[in-house]
Amino acid sequence: MVETQFRYRADEPAGDPAVTVDSFGDQTNAAAVRIEPGDDARVLLPYLDRLKLVEVNFPAYTDGRGYSAARILREAGYVGELRAVGDVLVDQLAYMRRCGFDSFAPEHPLNTADAEAAMARYADVYQPTVDGRAPVWAKRHG
């Protein structure tokens, strides 16, 4: 299990170890899965009701495929914990939250004050996403 540094959920953390996407479908008792770059998050859509945790691996901060995986899962109705793991940088946190990530396990620990500042930096946003914040154009044009 990956060490979580930041978690923005009130429920109990999942205690199950995450299995690969390939092995998840064969394990009827698995409740946690880890998405690697190149895995298709849509494979998990029939199983959203039994998933408690989805870890999305970011092996390099330049690999943005995990953002798409998060959006696919959240837009399909996944309400469990969605954890970004790996090469997660402080300046990515707010964008990851907007895509639906609610916990973070960075490869290298982040400064807590910097993380809090990053999360609070932008009062207004431009794109609609799964975090429920209205984009600034919608506020302006009702």
Per DSSP, the total helix count is: 5
How widely separated are the two ends? Answer: 45 Å
Which residues form runs of ≥5 with pLDDT under 50?
none
Strand content: 15-25%
Q: What class would the helix/strand composition place it in? A: alpha/beta
Major beta sheet summary: 6 strands, mixed
The pLDDT mean sits at: 88
Explain the overall architecture:
The protein is of the alpha/beta class. It is built from 5 helices and 6 strands, in the order E-E-H-E-E-H-E-H-E-H-H. It has helices at 21-24, 65-75, 93-99, 112-120, 136-141, and strands at 6-7, 19-20, 32-35, 53-58, 81-86, 103-106. A 6-stranded mixed beta sheet has the order 1-6-5-4-3-2. It is globular and about 50 Å long. The relative contact order is 0.16.
Topology:
Layout: E1 6-7, E2 19-20, H1 21-24, E3 32-35, E4 53-58, H2 65-75, E5 81-86, H3 93-99, E6 103-106, H4 112-120, H5 136-141
Write a concise synopsis of the structure shown.
The protein is an alpha/beta fold.
Q: Features of this protein?
A:
26% helix; 142 residues; six-stranded mixed β-sheet; 6 strands; alpha/beta
